[in-house]
Amino acid sequence: MTGTxxxxxxxxxxxxxxxxCLDPIFEIHSTDNKVKYIIQPLYCQCGIWGRHSFCGxxxxxxxxxxxxxxxxxxxxxxxxxxxxxxxxxxFAQAAFTDADNFVINFPKKASPYDKLMIIGxxxxxxxxxxxxxxxxxxxx
Length: 140
Description:
Layout: E1 2-4, E2 11-16, E3 26-29, E4 35-41, H1 46-49, H2 54-57, E5 61-67, H3 68-73, E6 82-87, H4 91-96, E7 101-105, H5 112-130
Antiparallel strand pairs: 1-2, 2-3, 3-4, 4-5, 5-6, 6-7
């Protein structure tokens, strides 16, 4: 996904989801195509692997935000600069809706444009991993 300001047609960067064997990784690239942030979930979370079950809808799911330098040095949880957390909003919302609630803890040095790209990544995570397509009402 490419971020662009519509008023000036200025590029904000792009979000890339490279292929991985297990848990997803999202890379936020700057306008000069360098990786600036890497967003990766904590390993083996029920919210990702069991996301279509009721148990998966009741779990909190955390995606850590790393600067590229810290991630490539040591991708431990202690080096995370921020996080995207899908919160459990209650049994009624989990049982009767497909709505999700997210909390974003932005990195302290993130610019306003970086924050826009992180919000875009949150939308990609929501649509790619937590939306249920069974309510599309296809008439086959």
